[in-house]
Design brief:
It is built from 6 helices and 5 strands. It is an alpha+beta fold and 165 residues long.
Length: 165
């Protein structure tokens, strides 16, 4: 078992990928949901971490949500989401999530060194990209006509069967 994730899968729109079991209708979707849930629940043993992103905590299976170690909660208005988050933080904190300003989040869990939830401001993307690009220029890709065709590419060297791996 490993506590150090070697790969992190990002599940955007998690309410579609791991919905509450009773909201999955098609048999194929049930199978896909079951496999995704198993990867999330057992992946840590194999160095697999995950990041769930959803705007609808009420629609994500609670079995998965209860495994979350760290949460960034942005403004939320639905009572189901606030009730769920109230299990992690005090109910008063959860009820105040509807008044969180735009581009702010409440951060709490194992990823935080603080015992209490922390209100934080999220970076403005345009400001971040502008300052980041000063030192990190976007990659320059070769033009399509500069890429050699399969016939022009060098053959790969033969494998050495004496290598033990």
């Amino acid at each position: 078992m490993s506590d150090n994730a070697k790969v992190c899968l990002v599940y955007e729109e998690a309410h579609s990928l791991v919905p509450e079991w009773n909201s999955v209708v098609a048999e194929g979707d049930k199978h896909a949901t079951s496999g995704t849930a198993r990867a999330i629940l057992q992946g840590r043993k194999f160095g697999l971490g995950c990041l769930l992103i959803t705007q609808r905590t009420a629609n994500v299976t609670k079995t998965i949500l209860n495994q979350c170690n760290t949460i960034f909660a942005m403004r939320t208005f639905d009572d189901t989401g606030k009730d769920f988050l109230g299990n992690y933080i005090e109910k008063d904190y959860a009820q105040s999530l509807s008044s969180v300003k735009e581009r702010h989040a409440v951060f709490f869990g194992r990823g935080s060194s603080c015992e209490n939830p922390v209100l934080m401001k999220v970076n403005n993307r345009d400001d971040f990209v502008r300052s980041y690009r000063v030192e990190h220029h976007p990659p320059v890709f070769p033009q399509a006509d500069a890429i050699p065709s399969p016939e022009e590419q060098q053959p790969e060297p033969a494998l050495d069967d004496d290598v033990p791996f």
